[in-house]
Amino acid sequence: MTKRILAPSILVVAIVLSACQWSGGDGSEKKEETPSSEREATPEEKEQPKEESSEENDTNSNDSEEDSEKQGNDSIEQDDQSSMEDSAAQPSATNENGVLQEHKSVTAVINKQRQLPKDYVPSDLVVPDVPFYFEEFHPKKQMRKEAARHLETLFSDAEQAGIELVAASGYRSFDRQQTIYKGNVENMGEEEANQVSAQPGHSEHQSGLAMDVTNGEVSFQLIQEFGKTEAGMWLVNHAHEYGFIIRYPEGKESITGYSYEPWHLRFVGEELATEIHNSTSTLEEYFGIVPE
Ligand SMILES: [Zn+2]
C-alpha cells in the first residue's frame, strides 16, 4: 500500500503529520481547505523545512537519540504492562510540578497540566504490524506493546469491514518534542506555539500509547476532514472496542486543551475506552479533572 503513495503524497503526509506530532498539535481548519502545496506554511512546516523532503519528516534531528532510546525495548516488557486495568476513576497522581507519578499507567492523563517525566521512555516499545505511510523503520512507528497489539486487531477488523486505515505517527521522545516545540516558539512566539503544540513532557506521543492514523481519502494527511470519512466515523463507533479513544473530540477543545483531532488515537484499555465512549466524555471529564 505504501508503494502507491508516491513522493507527492509522502511529502504531504510528512508535512501534516507533524501537527499532531507535537502532541496534539493542531490539525487546524486552514489545513483542510487548501492543498499542502498551496496553503500557508503551518508551524511544523516552518519548523522543519529540511525534513519535508524526506519521508522521515520531522524526526531527522533526533534520529540518533531515538535510535538509542528504542534499543532493548523488545526485551524489556515487564513493569510497563502492569497497570493496564487500573481504571478506577482516579487519575494518577502528580507531584507539585504536575509530573505524573504513575506515568506508566495506560490510563494516565497527560495534558497541558500533567506531564510525563523528562526521562521517561517506555521499555516495551514495538512496531505494530499495520500499514504505515512509509516503509522503513522509524522510532515513530512504535507503540507500547499492548497498545500495538490492540491496534493491530483494530486495523485488521477495520480492513475486514472495508475501512482503509494507515498509521502515521506513534511514539515520540521528550527530546524530539522539545526540539519541535522550541522551533515553534522561535517561529511564532510562545503564545501561538502553545496553541498548536505541546510542550515537551506534555505530549501523549511520549507515552507510546498514541497513534495518529489517516488514509487515502484525505491524501494521508492529518486533517479534521478525516473525521467525516468512512474511516473516521468507523473509528468513532468502534475504536473503544479495541481500547482506544478519540482523545481530542470535536466540541471538547476547552476541556482537552487541543483542537479536534479525529486522527489521534489514545490507548487506555477497553474498559475505560468503553466508558468514555458510552458517556461521550474525555479523559479529563471521566477523572473529574477538567481545567477551570
Ligand atoms: Zn497525535
TrEMBL record:
User: What is the protein's given name?
Assistant: D-alanyl-D-alanine carboxypeptidase family protein
This chain's source organism reads: Pontibacillus salicampi
Q: Where is the composition biased (Polar residues)?
A: 89-98
Ranges of compositional bias, category Basic and acidic residues: 27-52
Disordered: annotated span: 21-101
Q: Where is the secretion signal located?
A: 1-24
Q: Which InterPro entries match?
A: DD-CPase-like (IPR052179), VanY-like_core_dom (IPR003709), VanY/YodJ_core_dom (IPR058193), Zn_M74/Hedgehog-like (IPR009045)
Q: Does the keyword Signal apply?
A: yes
MF term (GO), any: carboxypeptidase activity
Source taxonomy: Bacteria, Bacillati, Bacillota, Bacilli, Bacillales
**Domain spans labelled D-alanyl-D-alanine carboxypeptidase-like core:** 141-269
- Bias kind Acidic residues: ranges: 53-68
UniProt entry keywords in alphabetical sequence: Carboxypeptidase, Hydrolase, Protease, Signal
